[in-house]
């Protein structure tokens, strides 16, 4: 494991895609995340879930040390006008940790 990238330690693209699949399903069904913010609710209602999963997967692959494959915009730019609260961020972080745990990613 020494010297491996996070991407490699997570199991590569397939493992990351599995974790993102689980995460996005959890986020879409999370009442706090989908009802607390009108802009987030509108995005989730109008965007294709599979495409969203692809974008999150590609971003996760790239930022974890895998190949450059994310075709989207900068994360700060994408989220700056959503008015996300600290609570929404905390719930998202919790869902992310839980998703990684559920697919067997060690601490």
Q: Summed up, what is this model?
A:
The chain has 107 residues and is mostly helical. The protein has helices at residues 6-10, 12-29, 31-35, 38-46, 49-63, 75-79, 86-102. It has one domain: Globin-like, CATH 1.10.490.
Blueprint (SSEs and pairs):
Elements: H1 6-10, H2 12-29, H3 31-35, H4 38-46, H5 49-63, H6 75-79, H7 86-102
Helix pairs in contact: 2-5, 2-7
What does this structure look like?
With 107 residues, the protein is mostly helical. The chain has a single domain, classed as Orthogonal Bundle (Globin-like). 69% of the residues lie in helices and 0% in strands. It contains seven helices and no strands. Helix 2 packs across helix 7. The model has no long low-confidence stretch (mean pLDDT 89).
Give a quick set of tags describing it:
mainly alpha, 0% strand, 107 residues, Globin-like
Question: What class would the helix/strand composition place it in?
Answer: mainly alpha
Cα-atom Rg, whole angstroms? Answer: 14 Å
* CATH architecture classification: Orthogonal Bundle
Tell me about the largest β-sheet: none
